[in-house]
């Protein structure tokens, strides 16, 4: 995008906003080089929900800043005065099937499903590896997104472009 265009606002959604959506937010903000501004939220974060400690650890081990990351409700982004989103991407199957708020500006939408790295009874070392693999899977798809030319990111083309990356 040219320097005069504002960055594209992208919201990553997951049920609790503690793992996959947090990983995607942090990654895109690190990779987006001013062309993108990422946010994340959950459809139903639990009371006092925080980002999963292993998500934060995986990001830190990858050299990605975790500063300012917090779990939040998607209601924050449907409220008056919230940043207007250009693209909303669900990263878990549960959130993809839920009835979303009416988003201001009618942003493009896409679903990029990833397995939940926090599920199961594995030990912390095995779960950390699952978080690392999820981080790299999200990173591969985001690398394709950030490398797209401006015409593929124009509002009229954005939905098809983002949905096409779901199979990447």
UniProtKB/TrEMBL annotation:
UniProt name for this protein: Arsenate reductase ArsC
Organism, scientific name: Acidovorax lacteus
Residues annotated as domain Phosphotyrosine protein phosphatase I: 8-148
InterPro entries, sorted: Ptyr_pPase, Ptyr_pPase_sf
Keyword set, alphabetical order: Arsenical resistance
UniProt keyword Ribosomal protein present: no
Xref: Pfam families: LMWPc
Highest taxon of the lineage: Bacteria
């Amino acid at each position: 995008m040219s320097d005069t265009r504002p960055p594209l606002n992208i919201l990553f959604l997951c049920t609790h906003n503690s793992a996959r959506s947090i990983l995607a937010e942090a990654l895109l903000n690190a990779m987006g080089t001013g062309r993108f501004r990422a946010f994340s939220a959950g459809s139903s974060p639990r009371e006092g929900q925080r980002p999963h400690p292993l998500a934060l650890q995986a990001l830190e081990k990858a050299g990605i800043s975790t500063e300012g990351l917090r779990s939040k409700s998607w209601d924050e982004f449907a409220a008056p005065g919230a940043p207007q989103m250009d693209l909303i991407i669900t990263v878990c199957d549960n959130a993809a099937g839920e009835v979303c708020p009416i988003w201001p500006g009618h942003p493009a939408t896409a679903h990029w499903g990833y397995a939940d790295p926090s599920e199961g009874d594995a030990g912390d070392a095995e779960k950390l590896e699952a978080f690392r693999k999820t981080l790299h899977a999200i990173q591969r798809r985001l690398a394709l997104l950030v490398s797209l030319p401006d015409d593929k990111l124009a509002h009229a083309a954005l939905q098809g472009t983002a949905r096409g990356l779901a199979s990447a």
